[in-house]
Known about the structure:
- This protein has 14 helices and 14 strands.
- The chain has helices spanning 27-39, 56-68, 79-89, 106-114, 134-138, 158-167, 219-229, 236-241, 258-268, 271-289, 321-330, 348-352, 380-385, 400-417, and strands at residues 72-76, 97-101, 103-104, 118-122, 143-149, 171-175, 183-184, 187-188, 195-199, 212-216, 295-297, 310-315, 342-343, 389-393.
Amino acid sequence: MLSQCRVMPDTLRPRPVPGLGCNAIGQEEEELVLDVLRRKEPFRYYGLNPDSPPPMAAILEKEMCAYIGTDYALAVSSGTAALEIAYAAIGLGPGDEVIVPAWSWVSCFTAIVRVGARPVLCEIDDTLNFDPAEIARLVTPRTKAVSVIHYQGVAAEMDLIQKEAHRRGLFVVEDCAQSIGTTYRGRQIGTWSDVAIYSFQYNKVATCGEGGMVVTRDQRIYERAVRYHDLGNYRPFHEAVVPSREKPFAGGQFRLSEISSAVALAQVRKVDAIKAHCRSVQARVLAKIEGLAGLNLRRIPDSDGDFGFEIYLMFGNLDHVAPFHAKLDALNVNCGARTGTYPQYNRDYVKTGLLHHPAVSPFKDFKEWPDEGYRAEDFPRTEDLTKRYVALPIGWLYTAEDADYIGDSIVAVHAEVCR
Length: 419
Ligand SMILES: Cc1ncc(COP(=O)(O)O)c(C=O)c1O
């Protein structure tokens, strides 16, 4: 393998273990989980002692509000659930449209469809996030919201997006599932919108295996989110946070257990340490590769706020991507020419336009399917940009030596491939 690359580091270094919060699980998580188990109170709303309800989900919500700088937080069972809840809470339904990047995770699309509304796919720009100019291109009288994904620890251009969307009377939804702890212009993401969501799934910065959070400053959105996540209920705990003013309606069941909340709480307390670590490893790699010809980096609107857990090498020459990836991988550098995200128009649920029952599909009135706006050829920029990169993850267990080795390897492979 080494002989594939003529100029290279002297010795092949073992691959560093990737992963963020999952690798930071330790005594803090253990102690909080044991606390739940010893009290025998795994359910958030009541336990053995009627005078003191179980505390973990409540503390998690309180600390999330303080950390992000918002008013209301609701712990839920996943980021996907959080998205569906957020859409239900802003009153999204049949006939409504939401502008959302074509380059996004499965549930960024499916959560909109599941409340009966229509996702309208937009292009990304060289930040790999929502292109703010797409709002003016795609808005219709049916548009009710824009949904912004902060992809892999880098904030979208929220000041432009927020201004343009609010000027047109649209809700702004921020999907911070991948990017808790990322800031933009000195403020946490999740505070630039009407409602925002987070994920605590295994791959995320902070994890409890499965879990999520809805945050908002709006009391009505908060109450509706609570009701949607808990069978339509609005229990005394929430009544004490915001007195009820909404009519009850049929909800789902997306509650987070006390055990998951305990793990998530310990993890949220570690986000800043994980970010500081990732940023220092990233800075070390970037110092080594500065100025390499033909190699650009993903544009980052606010580099001070970048979480730093992924470096995107963007290639001017498409022919360089595959060999660069193969040679870097052969040097035991964790990297991918594709991440877990695929363009929505390549997914089966978009290609068919179907839901579990055809009558509830928001695409049922289209004469031909997939129609304009849902085919690869409608997204030339997204298609192009997402084929131009090699992404390098940075993890909690990466060391300064790993950073130097990664930097040296990139320089060596660059000399081979980009001559
Ligand atoms: C951008 C984005 N939104 C939402 C989700 C859904 O989160 P979960 O896996 O917790 O359901 C994910 C998960 O990867 C995501 O990346």
